[in-house]
From TrEMBL:
It comes from the Bacteria. This is cAMP-binding domain of CRP or a regulatory subunit of cAMP-dependent protein kinases. It holds the Pfam family cNMP_binding. Residues 12-124 form the Cyclic nucleotide-binding domain. Keywords: Kinase, Transferase. GO terms for molecular function: kinase activity.
Length: 195
């Protein structure tokens, strides 16, 4: 079943009846994206939430000097969207692109909002998911302020096991607030220390 994974993900924080699950699944669509294909570009308005069935995506923005800064990665069983753009119906500052051929489950913003009014359990799921996401973002911000580059990289490896092998090192570098050149030194140090 194409929606089995998303229902299992939701069941972490919310219990839906069989009837609610069926009604929710009726709102979903499978979206297949190729590597390097965008699901959102800077200036677009984000109109959907996406659940990753298969693949890997990244969210990034480009600064005024033309440098990319990675904000978020999403792999199987993770959600990805632009919460600011989607909730404010405002143009996004970010881009979301597939790093691998990917299969996503898409739910349109308006359909999701209307469904959450009818099914408070789903609203609870998204509230708890967003809270967890905010906590993780807060911890990342604190790490950027008080941890060394090596410590940040070790945290990344430990928090997201296996992810480092799927993402080009230049993307991990900017996610950690490092230049790709400096990241090479950090990566070599951490790799030697962990052997």
């Amino acid at each position: 079943m194409a929606f089995e994974s998303i229902l299992k993900n939701i069941s972490r924080f919310a219990s839906l009846t069989l009837q609610e699950e069926e009604a929710f699944c009726a709102l979903l669509a499978i979206k297949k994206v190729k590597r390097k294909e965008f699901i959102l570009r800077e200036g677009d308005i984000c109109t959907a939430e996406y659940f990753v069935n298969k693949g890997c995506l990244r969210t990034y923005f480009v600064d005024k000097k033309g440098f990319e800064h990675n904000l978020y990665f999403a792999i199987e069983d993770w959600w990805i969207s632009d919460l600011y753009s989607r909730t404010q119906m405002a143009p996004t500052y970010s881009n979301i692109v597939a790093l691998e051929d990917s299969e996503l489950v898409e739910i349109k913003h308006q359909a999701l909002e209307e469904f959450m009014v009818k099914v408070p359990a789903l609203e609870r799921f998204f509230r708890l998911s967003y809270q967890l996401s905010l906590v993780n973002q807060h911890l990342k911000n604190l790490d950027m302020l008080h941890l060394s580059a090596e410590e940040r990289y070790v945290n990344f490896i430990e928090k997201y096991p296996g992810l480092a092998g799927r993402i080009p090192q230049k993307h991990i570098a900017t996610y950690l607030g490092l230049t790709p050149e400096f990241f090479n030194t950090v990566h070599a140090k951490v790799t030697r220390a962990r052997k």
